[in-house]
Amino acid sequence: MNKAAPNGARVPIVLIGGFLGAGKTSLINHLLVRANGRKLAVFVNDFGAINLDRDLIETEDESKISFRNGCVCCTLNDDFVRTITAFLQGNAAPDVIVVEISGVADPRQMGASLVALENAGIGRFDAHVYMLDAANFFDMGFEHREMIIEHAACADILVLNKSDLAESRAVIRLRDLISDATEAIPAIEADFGKVDEDLVFGPQISRRDDFCPTDAGARSDHAAAYTSFSVSTKGCIHRAAFENFAAMLPRFCFRAKGLVRFIEDPTTLLLFNLVSTRATLEKFGQKNVQPDNKCKFVMIAKESGEDLAWLESSLHSVFNGKTSRRDRSDAKTKTELGHDR
Amino acid sequence: MTQETLFKNGIINSMDSAVPNPEAVAIADGKIVAVGSALDVEDQIGAKHHVIDLHGSVLQPGFVEPHSHILWAAKTRGAPVGDITAAVVPTYRAAIAKVKRHVAEAVPGEFLLFYGVDPQLHTDMEEPSRSFLDEIAPNNPLALQTSNGHAVFMNSAALDACNITKDTPTPVGSVIARDDSGTPTGRLEEALVWRVLEIFYESWGENRLTTEFRKSIDTCLRAGVTTVTEHLYLPFYKTYYLQALKQAVPLPRVAAYQQAVDPDMMVERIDLDDRLWMAGVKIHADGSPFVGNIWLTKPYLETSTTLERMHLSPGHTGGPNYPADFFEMMVRNYFGQGWQMSVHTQGDRTIDMVLDLVETILEETPRDDHRFRLEHCALMREDQIVRAKDLGVQCSFFINHITHWGGPIEDALFGPERAAHYMPAGSAHKAGMRLSLHADAPMTVTSGLDLMQAASTRMTNDGRCLGENERLDRLTALKAVTIDAAFHIGMEHKLGSLTRGKLADLVILDRDPLDTNPHELSAIQVEQTWLAGECVYRR
Question: Which residues, by range, are in coiled-coil regions (chain A) (predicted)?
């Protein structure tokens, strides 16, 4: 249950999990570099593991590194709620809070802390990304493998990291095992933790009127892995049509985000957020949004061939607006600064 | 007298209405020696006392869990038992995949047991047949126990190991499901389940149980729980408690309720310095709402959950575990010996049966302060609450059902009307009843704070409030896991409040449960747990 904060400014919280050596720090380094205009506040267990180009660092002290792109990285002490509450009291609210979960801790134990932050109007649990070491998974002992599978089953998105080093047979075996153990949780292959940042954070909703994805046109030489669709409308939409549309999204999308107003209640702006199979719809305040009737919606679809055309036409009919489409490549094809895995 | 320890500079919830919020509490020799204003308390104790500065934290009595199975939890869910509860393994398909992975690792003949198959939460479940389980594990005894513990599904090797054949008579109070030819299908229910699974537990050796028992104890201490019960006590359990105490393991105080399955059992008399005692006798009048073996006046809903996964017939109203006269013999015998009775009742028809019996017995042989307990009370009706109160019958509610199974309770089992009053703690409180709340470990995790949150919000895991009129205020909820729970186990004169002369079981919390958003009670941190005057857990 989400309770809307009065100003709609609850900060999304993204959890990054994974067993020791799975590549959590690589992913965090990658996200810090590719924040893409987002101001991240990242909380990690081992501060020393963050290993970024010195040029990116603005200031550094015992418990906090500030980066030139506006992101910060802080140590996480054992009281998660207090760490984050204290940080937000002393700093401007970031766009996203990223928290690294200890490799051996049960992620389910984060639940109560997340609820406390949500109820306090501080944060909004957004997504739980879990990293697996695709190259070494089957070399681990049975107990460790079972623990990893159990933890993975709590996540929204799985990253099969080091897939470049893994034999393709091992990756297929891991995919089969995960599919048996976790059902609907999407698994994305990556090297060096290089995952499309929009899969982690959700697509960005542009504030410009001619709404389109943030870096449209950025194409890679490789075949596209995902496709994103976006739409903006001048007026309100029908709630029932939207709900039907939203209900079928988990089958086709990793992530979707929208700011919507319904004809039934045109003065209320709502934030829709879908991560894997989990969707929320909550009141969004007036801060940072134009006082018009616009709805905006963006989604990242899974590779599903002919379904894409159908998905696009559904989007069009629900929003009755101009849609745009963009093929996204794997982030790993882009130039990166992070080095360790 | 040894040096006193003084607690001050914090919020103190004494749970004693005479001095609800004292400034200081002092303990010595395992007892509370002074409670009151800081000056008064310091006056009453020696000058060279030890001070615990609370720094604004909250001191209160240790939590009392009035219905649990602390040793049995270690047996049933400790390693190597595989956890397939829906919280860990969300679907039946995934649960079976996990079972198969374990079978692949096992040596032939190794006993394999999994806990948590769940017809309500594993919505893709199909009842695992004997032949299906034989196919999965041809070379190992394999058993899957339901998340409520009341039923198990076994393969042929497991049935053989437990010596359950076509010729095995079905014990009174239990079920051996059979096909048309009388051959067991692998599904067992009730007391027989617990008896035959001992064969699995024994196969894993003594050390396993000792290790897992320590974990079970740690869970309690981390949650600030200083008194628990063993609600299906069997005489051979005593060795493990004594061993723990002898090795100075901080075992919470244990109130034992010996399990009765027939009328002529010897109830063991134990009274070990307020650390372990025989509190009474436990009988299962019916089974689990999630298995379908409870007795109702109105039938279950007809849904895919009840018809396909629980295999109930349309119009199913269940029944009691024992024939009425057999049950009556048991109750008359143990109640007649002066024991406190603790009777498992879930369905309203079962509660009618038990209240009728209590009324009859009390008319014949009046007894003051008998504290006859009804356990769980899922579908107790308003009129039954009034009647129970008049008879002096105590009700303890298994409120965590709402959190974990609230969605299916409403949608799949009983419908909105009955769901709104499922585990009617609020009605019991309004009727003036002194109630307690319990987690029934191993079915849910032992935690007084979780119970408080469940009772004061009635929020389900799928995000709905199940019966807002049945919610408790925080003070009543806190009483229900401290002083009123102590009352239910007959120890309110020694436990459950910070009162001079009582035993020094305390807990320090980082926030005040009486002044915390009910939805965040579970997130309150236990800073320290003190048992019998010793700090036994520090965060």
Answer: none
